[in-house]
Structure formats: C-alpha cells, structure tokens
Amino acid sequence: MRAIVIKEFGGPEALTLDELPAPRPGPGQVTIDVAYAGVNFADILARSQGYRVGELPFQPGLEVSGLIREVGEDAGDFTPGQEVAAFLDGGGYADVVLASAARVFPVPGGVDLRTAATLPSVLPTAYGLLYEVARLREGDTVLVQGAAGGVGTVAGQLARAGGASAVFGVVSSLDKAEHALKSGYDQVFVTDTFDQEVLEATGGRGVDIALDSVGGETFRRTKAVVARFGRLISFGNAGGGEPWQVGPADVSPTALTVGGFSILGLAAADPALLRVIADRAFHTVTEGGVELPVSAEFSLEDAAQAHILVESRTSTGKLLIRVAG
Q1: Per residue in 284-294, pLDDT tens?
Q2: pTM of the full predicted structure?
Q3: 198 closest CA partner among 178, 182, 216, 212
Q4: What highest taxon heads this organism's lineage (predicted)?
Q5: CATH number for domain 2-119+292-322, candidates 3.90.230.10, 3.90.180.10, 3.40.640.10, 1.10.1020.10
Q6: Which has the closest alpha carbon to 121: 13, 266, 232?
Q7: Which of the residues 9, 184, 281, 283 could staple to 157 if both were Cys, CB 3.0 to 4.6 A apart?
Q8: What is the model's pLDDT at position 34?
Q9: What is the mean pLDDT of the chain?
Q10: What angle do CA 96, 305, 154 make, to 5 degrees?
Q11: Is the peptide bond before 57 cis (omega within 30 degrees of 0)?
C-alpha cells in the first residue's frame, strides 16, 4: 500500500511517499480502506517538531473516512464495506489504516465520505469546548480565536445553535473574514486589534466564553476581554509562544474560570467518552445543519502541498487528502 512517512523532522519535504505492507487488525481493532484523510495543524507540528511522535519513522494523519476492510476479534459490530470515520494516533495518510474500534464511528445517514472526513477531530473538539468544558448557556456571548479555521468554522455555528446572544471571531487577516461571517459569527476582528474591538462591541463588559487556540500573547490578550464569571478555554498553541500560566491574581478579581481541552488527550485517556461526545457532535451535522466546508483537496502524492498551504496561514475551513480514486 501507499503511505506517507516521516523519516526525519523538517519542512514539508519530510513527507515521503513509501510502499508499506497493509496492516492487519488485532483484537479490538479494524482496518479501513481510506477514502479521504483530514489535514490538521497537529500533523504540521508532528512533522516539524515531533509533536506527540514516539519515534521515527512516523506516519502522520489523525482522521480518515473510508470503508471497513477487516474486523478483528472483539471489535464490535463493524462489517466489511461499512462506511466509517475514524480518529487515529497517526497513519491516516495511507491507502489502509489500522484503528482502534473504540475510535471508529459509523458515518451518519445522509453524509458522504468526503464530508465524513471532516468530522472525527474538528467537530468533537468544537463541541467539547463549548458544551462540555465552557458549558455554553443561552444568552452567552462567545469569542473564538482562529474563526476561519476548521474548529473555528464549526464553533461559530455551534455557538449560534446553542443560543449564544452574540458570537465574535478573530482571524489573522481580513481576507478570512468573509468565510468566518458565513459560519455563525456576528462580527469578525483581526488579531492586531481584536481586544479593543471586543470591548467596544460588548460595551466594555467582555465575553462570557473565549476559546483560544493561539496561546502566548494572544492568550493573555484574550483573558483581558473575558467578562466577570467568564470562561476562557485553551485548546492549542498555534502561535508557538510560551505556555500560558495563571495564578490567583489573574482569576480571582473577576472570578474567571480557565480551562483546557485536547481531543488527542481525550482519545488516549478515555475513548469511551470521546465516542459519547462524537456521537452528540455528529448529530449536529445531521439534525442541526452544522457543516465544515472543504476549501482544498490534494492527492496523496501532493500531501506536502497541503502542509505548505496550512503553514501559509491563508487557508480556511478544512483541507483533505484524497486517497481513493
């Protein structure tokens, strides 16, 4: 089978196309003939910095859609040929992947495999952030960093569907604002001036919920525009700055709640809970009309081009690698 392999950390050229034996499932596992693989920022960090990579060589790719190929013992009710989406530890950029059955989800009715590839990581992340960690309530005001990215595109729609009274997004450039405004956001601000504009938009009060994927200085500026009794949730460090730290002086005066969320951590520590959250999140697609537009699609041979586009910071929505066909 064809597979993208990282043999040494580096730039997009570190993604090499190899021929490898197709995996076979063991107990509690299935193999999947991949139709599409999602491209995530975590893949970029794995390739360039070794993020969550145990050892080299390493196969990137955290989410796929496709057809069940083989079913191992004690792997549930999956059947060969069944359409599924899966959340992986890696290996998604390949013709065939090995997956824990606990992290494999039947594709919801009415959803095609192309759309299904956008669901396994992004949708549960956005859902978990808003509903499980931030505990979104009707009437809350919400601020989302990276509003034009995968999680941001979905988070705006979910916040709106969950009864938020106002949803604000932050983007790195005005070129991305139009995309974000189609995804449930009332107003979209650029990174350089968002804090002042959020306070102006809320009459100086700030927002009830803020979701931050950038970290560093952006995290600190976001914290400053969260209202009393508000919730600030970190789910990444895309800016590459120093890890955030808070103490009593940061949270006590405004009764601020600060939390974090990692879909990768949840998948590793509690896949059963991931399945529950994913099931709830997937229902928002079939019943609530939530969608994550695919903005670009690449062949497996052109996986490096997908990484180049992500790193350019100009992409919006979701990028996919087309494996089958």
Answers
A1: 888 877 888 89
A2: 0.90
A3: 212
A4: Bacteria
A5: 3.90.180.10
A6: 266
A7: 184
A8: 98
A9: 93
A10: 75
A11: yes
